[in-house]
Amino acid sequence: MKRLNILVQDSSDNIKGKIVDNHIILDIVGDEVHYWSPQLNFRIEEDEENEKHSVMLGLIGPRPEVWTLFMFIYFSIGIVGFFISSYGFVQLFLGDYSNLILVLPLTILIMLTAYRVGKHGEKLAEDQTEMLKQFIRDAIVFEKK
After folding, report:
1. Which of 17, 70, 113, 142 is an S-S bond match for 26, by CB 3.0 to 4.6 Å?
2. Domain of 34?
3. Count of structural domains within the chain
């Protein structure tokens, strides 16, 4: 942990980090930052089975504002699509045709588009994701048995 603390403080111009207790957040900073830049969140805990070892658990993903935007899109489109298409299906079951049934495939199309946009952003962040992974690899020292 001490080595990681030093690395976070002395990190390159591209990576900056925050350490709170055993939780660490690494961000990409500088000229290379874009909307899809990833963030690495992880924590280090003592291994319950072996006190000489630590366990590292983490997640590399988009920054919180990107997560929030996509969850808002999925939730909003899903709820609106569900209720409007449900109304259309009720009309259909009552014997009246309603164009509102067409909202269901439109909802699915918008959600798939949002998914594809997210995957495209993931590809744009590949190099920075690898940079964060390499930073962690450099910070961790494994003992040979």
Report:
1. 17
2. 2-62
3. 2
Model confidence over 2-33: pLDDT tens digits?
555 555 665 567 888 888 887 888 898 888 88
pLDDT digits (tens, 9 = 90+) for 26-77: 898 888 888 899 999 988 888 888 877 778 888 998 988 998 999 999 999 9
Domain presence at residue 134? no
Q: Provide the whole-model pTM.
A: 0.73
> DSSP assignment of 71-125, as one string?
HHHHHHHHHHHHHHHHHHHHHHHTT---GGGGHHHHHHHHHHHHHHHHHHHHHHT
Are 58 and 71 part of one and the same domain? no
